[in-house]
Amino acid sequence: MSSFSEDTVSPSSPPNERASNPKVKESLLKWWAIFPFAIFIVIVLIFGRPSANNPRANEAYTVGFVVGGCLLGLVLSLVSAWVTYHVTRKSQLGATLMFSLVILFIGLTMISNWARGRAEHGSEDPSQSQLANPASRH
To answer: What's the predicted TM-score (pTM) here?
Structure first.
């Protein structure tokens, strides 16, 4: 006597293909895209603040400035990665590389703007600033 009975298998019921082979949606980016994004967040936190001589540079303005910089970099990088993903026929590697390049380019732009701002304000002759602002002479 066999333990398998033909009565348990119904020939009229179709096999459930979804349960045996679920379709998993492929993500846009590979897992290691978190590393360029983490580097970008550190760059924004260090170099993405408004200048100290900005009259509106209070705490809320600074937080908004930093969060806005993070979101701008993330959105621009994701849009470029999405376009690359579809142009390269759904290549995760291509999209991840484009995401990484764009987000790090934006971070390097923030660093260069910070350095340029320091060079402009740091090389200013104090006597010239006193001429521009007569109240600071005495």
So the answer is: 0.68
Q: Report yes or no: 104 and 42 within 8 Å, Cβ to Cβ.
A: no
Rounded Cα gap, residues 121 and 123, in angstroms: 6
- Give the three-state DSSP class for 23: coil
The whole-number mean pLDDT for each consecutive block of 10 residues of the chain, a chain of 138 residues, reads: 55 58 83 94 88 74 87 95 94 95 94 84 50 50
- Amino acid identity of residue 121, one-letter, is H
Contact partners, residue 2, CB within 8 Å, separation at least 6: none
Joined together, the tokens standing for residue 99 give 């995401």
Q: Which of 67, 74, 6 is nearest to 34 (CA)?
A: 74
- Those residues whose C-beta lies under 8 Å from the C-beta of residue 47, and which sit 6 or more positions away, are 110, 111, 113, 114
Length of the chain: 138
